[in-house]
Write a structure and sequence with these properties.
disordered C terminus; two-stranded parallel ribbon; 41% helix; three-stranded parallel β-sheet; mainly alpha; 7 helices
C-alpha cells in the first residue's frame, strides 16, 4: 500500500484487522458482509485471529439469529501468537537448552535427573536478552499468556478475541461509512478470558 498498490489486499496481520477500511474475512460466516464490501469498493480483506475464527465457525449462526446472550472463551496460546520475534526467541532458547546437555544426551549412561537439573539451571540462567520477548524462559515451561499485558490484566491475544468477535455486522467488521451509533448498540456481549 505504501508503494501505491491499489488492488485487493489479502492478509492475516493482526495489525490490520481493526482498521476502518478492512473487512475481517470468515466465509461463509460473513459472506454477506464480504459481498457488500466488494460492492462498495473495499479492497482490504484480512483473516481473523485463529481462535476467533474457529469459534465463529461454530457459533456464527447463533450470533446471526441473536441466540447468544453471553459467552466465555479460553485458549491455549502458542508462541506464534506473539509473532515472529517470539518464535525466534523460543527456538533460540531450545537451542541453548539442548547445547547445555548435549554431552549428557550423547552419553547413554548419563542420568536423566542430571539432564533435568542442568536444563533447570540453564533456564534460570537465561539473560534478560534471551527472554526479552516473553519476559521469562518459555522453552521447557508453560507461561500464563503470550504477547503483551495491556495494563488491565488482559493480554493482547485475549483482547483480540473479544474485539474481533464483537465487530458488527453479523458479527464481523462494520463497513466504512456505517452509522457507528447503530454498530455500538449491536456489540455482541462477549467476554474473553
Amino acid at each position: 500500500r505504501a508503494a501505491g498498490w491499489k488492488g485487493y489486499w489479502i492478509d492475516a496481520a493482526s495489525s490490520l484487522r481493526m482498521k476502518d477500511d478492512a473487512i475481517i474475512v470468515l466465509d461463509p460466516v460473513n459472506l454477506g458482509v464480504i459481498k457488500d464490501a466488494l460492492a462498495k469498493g473495499v479492497k482490504n480483506f484480512i483473516g481473523g485471529n485463529c481462535t476467533v475464527s474457529c469459534m465463529m465457525m461454530g457459533l456464527g449462526g447463533l450470533f446471526q439469529h441473536d441466540l447468544i446472550d453471553w459467552m466465555t472463551s479460553m485458549t491455549y496460546q502458542a508462541a506464534s501468537g506473539g509473532g515472529a520475534q517470539h518464535m525466534r526467541e523460543l527456538l533460540t532458547q531450545f537451542g541453548t537448552l539442548n547445547a547445555s546437555v548435549k554431552s549428557l544426551l550423547d552419553n547413554p549412561a548419563s542420568a536423566i535427573l542430571e539432564i533435568d537439573r542442568t536444563i533447570l539451571a540453564t533456564q534460570h540462567g537465561l539473560s534478560a536478552d534471551e527472554t526479552k520477548q516473553f519476559g521469562v524462559p518459555l522453552a521447557g515451561n508453560l507461561i500464563p499468556w503470550i504477547d503483551k499485558d495491556l495494563g488491565n490484566g488482559v493480554s493482547k491475544e485475549e483482547w483480540k478475541a473479544g474485539a474481533e468477535t464483537k465487530q458488527d455486522p453479523g458479527p464481523r467488521r462494520r463497513l466504512p461509512g456505517r452509522d457507528r451509533r447503530r454498530a455500538d448498540r449491536r456489540r455482541w456481549p462477549v467476554r474473553a478470558h
